[in-house]
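Just scan my protein:

. . .
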Amino acid sequence: MALPSELDLVIGAQFRAPITGAGSQGYRWLATVTGDADAVEVRTVGVPPAGDSPGVGSYPRELQIDARRAGTATVELALTHAGGRVREQHRMVVRVTETAS
């Protein structure tokens, strides 16, 4: 999975990107936001495809970052097992501005 290490957004914009899913193996995404943490809202979401029964396989996931106010935030993502093992890590610097430059 390739995520940018830097991202520029305008207030009100949303960044979306597919990310690894490994819920069936006991992993979940943990997001930590530092710096101007209230400049962004970060979510990892995913919905099983229609027709799949719960608990079968790992469903695709998506990273969503909403630009809320001007500032610079650092987003640290870690695909972490319930036992604490980290399978993947990503770090992004997100700059939010009032208008496009």
Summary: Residues 35 and 73 are 5 Å apart (CA to CA).
